[in-house]
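Bumping with the actual sequence this time:
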Amino acid sequence: MGTIQELIASYGYLAIFLMLILGIVGLPVPDEVLMTIVGYFTNIHILNYELSIFISFAGALMGMMISYVIGRKAGRPLIAKYGKWIGLKEKRMMKVERWMNKYGPYSLVFGYFIPGFRHVTCYFAGIGKMELKTYITFAAIGAFLWCFTFITIGKFIGIIHD
């Protein structure tokens, strides 16, 4: 937490944007903690609430787009080559694709609130070749709701703490 606070204090909105991209792509960034700290910082007037939501939304959506493109361009070949090592054989991939075709858009919205799950849904949406317009629409809804929720929680924690 201390590192996140220092990065935000030193680099502001740029740090938030970049940490969210990296976290959504799958690097070990504690996204919920980050958003809660951002919300707290809006309460103590280090950051602007509305701008924090916008920057966070943009970073989350950018990370989701990168994950989608990686899944779309490299996902199938990587799974064909290495999937057997992690239990993703063709039969299981077909099940995943059918599930994503049926529930994928909704998993992008609601799955965003489940750490780990939000990361794989982006890749599998790309691997399953979800239509880009559908992907962007549902990914944006999920990203906005998630950013708004956790930043607002952090803001209220600051209000309660004061």
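The tokens above came from a reply further down the thread. The CA atoms of residues 53 and 94 lie 37 Å apart.
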